[in-house]
Write the structure tokens for this entry.
Amino acid sequence: MDYLSASAAVAADLILDFDPEVYGIVLTSLKVSVSATVAASLIGVPLALSIALNNFWGKAFIRLLLNTLMALPTVVVGLFVYALIGRAGVLGELGLLFTPAGIILGETLLALPIITNLTLVAVETLDPRFFKTCRLLGGSTARTARAALFEARLGILAALVAGFGRVVAEVGVAMILGGNIKGFTRTMTTAIALETSKGEFALGLALGALLLLVALGVNGALFAIRRRA
Amino acid sequence: MDLFWKGDHTMKTKLLSLLMAALIVVPSISLAAETRLRMSTTTSTENSGLLAELIPPFEKAEGVKVDVIAVGTGKALQLGRNGDVDVVFVHARSAEDKFVDEGYGTYRKDVMHNDFVIVGPPQDPAGLASAKDLSSAMAALAKGEATFVSRGDDSGTHKKEKLLWKTAGIAPSGGWYAEAGQGMGAVLTIADEKRGYALSDRGTFIAYGGKVDLKVLFEGDQSLANPYGIIAVNPEKHPQARFGLAKAFIDYVVGEQGQKIIRGFRKNGQQLFYPDAIK
């Protein structure tokens, strides 16, 4: 395992050298995964709130479905979206395949069940007295939702962190929908896969360390928000 | 209890969502700005580093970007069939001809060649180095003295390997035959770890250099030739394909400048590809 020590040195070089290609890859990864997390939260959080605050037929089934979708393999999401946005697909005209926007679309679908489900759990596990208080104060569903959003903010933050973690670390969607195009759709994970296939294990591991560092930065920022909240 | 959002919260939320929206919108704007030619190709051309030298002069001269999607030959051709790329650059002659015959490809040109080699551990337990011809080499492998690692991924190399077994009249199966389903580099690593054999294109093997303890044990047979062809996606099948640009790229690759770059490309001091369009 002599490449373990070699990769530590390579990692240090990568980070300190400010190699524009490496930073371009980091930036693409961040751009794509942050966009996907934001898009998935904009859909998932309101969706979770409306599921949590309403009683309707089939609610248990939806909960089961969300739990199941959390196990979606990334490659399957990639293939499914490929069928949609490839030239032969219904959205082919948009030309989204092999662009960052294509990856964002796929990773949004990947993060959506996670963010929705964890938000749902966060809201449903709020103190039952909270909902009682809202009702007694005569709050409408919309106002109750906003209040619940605030009360469950830490759990929701955790949901976003889990969603971000899933998309920043995945390789299947980014590879199939992005195509690992140098300087355009190459993300940290597809770069790691490429370097590994070339036998550049040290460089692959170094990129992995860099990815963790980036995740540390993002989570650090969220942690700072959490402490203020 | 701070039950409802206060004013400054709303302000913050608005600012935050504005920022997030910008993050989503900005990448989509920047990618519309330039013309991009999409090429699917095999991992051997990309991983060897050849394309990194071959493409930039064309990009500069034409003011375009060439997007390289490096996959196995089977998938590269499939992307062409689906109209997801404008040009394919692969190495599987019969599959290429089929691609053109079916009307998906047009303007096919021979670009370059190298050859396939059978690599294995220096101890050579199957005695491949003393095989007098290709079919006895394949028969020696099939005795199962050591693992043979197959690509198993419908790539150009895998297609070639299947053809070699067929020609030798052998249906490979058993514990000694391992289908990896991965790229050339991964297969060389597996062969190295298992002290086994593999079929590799010479380019990737040279590029892999000292990373594996494997040796070329059989080479030189006529049927081990590995020609590369480049094909434009037919605009009659896929009207959105950038045929004009694809044709310009093909003309460049098989022209004086492209062929010179291919001839001059070295890895670990060795020539990897031999130009075919201009000798």
User: Anything to note?
Assistant: Chain B has eleven helices and twelve strands. The domain at 36-114+226-275 of chain B is CATH 3.40.190.10 (D-Maltodextrin-Binding Protein; domain 2).
